Amino acid sequence: MILIPETDYELTGIRAQGAGGQNVNKVSSAIHLRFDIPASSLSDWLKERLMHLKDSRITDEGVLVLKAQQYRTQEANRKDAIKRLHEIINAANQVKPMRYATRPTWGAQKRRLESKMQRGQIKQMRGKIASD
Fold this sequence. Notes:
Shape: elongated
Strand order of the largest sheet: 1-2-3
Number of strands: 3
Number of helices: 3
Largest sheet: 3 strands, antiparallel
Strand content: 5-15%
Order of helices and strands: EEHEHH
CATH topology of the domain at 6-93: Double Stranded RNA Binding Domain
Helix content: 25-40%
Structural class: alpha+beta
């Protein structure tokens, strides 16, 4: 788990979208989180991995922008945005093991072909009976 210092990201309060009743025009409960990947304190390897993610939330300059507006309070949205940032960075930090191509066993091939033959025979039985 990688810890990100608070100096690496910028939090801004904005007005949330959607219904909000009387407070909709007064309270900035949503949070905009901006994380500048090239200027961050992460390792170069991790920065490179983050920059190559196919994520629409990452701008061409390498700034990850998250908008948190799920909760009614600004504090809850702030925690949610930081949690989501940690999840994205920790997911990029994990390297998936190499996948090696394997071949099906002889028995598996035989069972597959037998089931295909059986299925074909069932379908043949559905045809019309020829009358002479």
